[in-house]
Amino acid sequence: MSEDAPTVPAGLPRGARLGVDVGMARIGLAASDPDGLVATPVETVPRVRDGQGATADVRRIVDEAVERFAAVVYVGLPRHLSGKEGAATADARAFADRLVTALAAARETTGEGPQVRLVDERMTTVSAHQQLRSAGRKTKKHRSVIDQAAAVIILQSALDAERAKGERAGELVEPRTVHDTHD
Predict the structure, then answer these.
(1) DSSP state, 170?
(2) Residue 59 half-sphere exposure toward CB, CA atoms < 13 A
(3) Which whole-number Å values give the CA distances from 121 to 56, 89, 170, in the listed order?
(4) What domains sit in the chain, N to C, each tagged with a CATH number?
(5) How many CA atoms lie within 13 A of 61 on its CB side?
(6) Is the separation of the CB atoms in 18 and 61 below 8 Å?
(7) What tens digit of pLDDT does each residue of 130-167 get?
């Protein structure tokens, strides 16, 4: 192994990681290897708007997490360039809440399950567009993969942060209790 090869962070349990780019119409999904070294695109999932609970989009991500024995699902948190949060941020947080609840339900059936963590995703879609254009893909033709490319960038950034800090990246999303939902 070369000196420049990335290393698996000591102290972090093995397990694939998923990256999720939540958009208004589509959700990009990416995954890593069990050692968390490289992010690769998985698919684009149609977004279910105005849904509650475990809608088809949430169930698809849960299925992927269970199938891959994921340790973490990183959900991109779109902030304004200033760092302030807006409507898209609230939407991503709500989606992450639904996802963590569905994963907790799946965990009851399968045993252990992944954490859900929110990570800053400023500029990922712009970066994804630039990467696809530089690879020779036309804008109209790369719409179907732009969300996957953004998910790859979200996930690879989280993986790089894990290696640099030796701990999980982002903000942990805690499952809500019955008490939390009635406040």
Answers:
(1) S
(2) 7
(3) 24, 10, 11
(4) 17-175 (3.30.420.140)
(5) 37
(6) yes
(7) 665 665 666 555 566 888 988 999 999 999 999 999 99
